[in-house]
User: What shape does this take?
Amino acid sequence: IKIADLGISKLLNDPFELSFTYCGTPINMAPEILNRVSYNFKADIWSFGTILYEMLIGESPFKHSKTKSDLKFSHKNFIFVNNRMQSFSKDCLRFINLCMTYN
Assistant: This one.
């Protein structure tokens, strides 16, 4: 799956290669990118989870975050609850949760 809203991207040649590039849309950034620490392809999985959530619900899971500090707090305290999600399968909800699990 390829979803792009970025004018910039970076290709990692090795799945174990780490990147330090700070780029992307902050509201969709994985916590490690936002915190400016090394990351790998797993950061893309987080971003995919936020985009999938937004495609299904119509709003970002972090829509109330106005600053990067708000986003960092929201990432640490993310609770996946939305009344509009009741019509989605448990597998769909589990998949989004797994995408957006910071480990």
Remarks:
- The radius of gyration is 14 Å.
- The chain has four helices and no strands.
- Residues 15 and 41 are 7 Å apart (CA to CA).
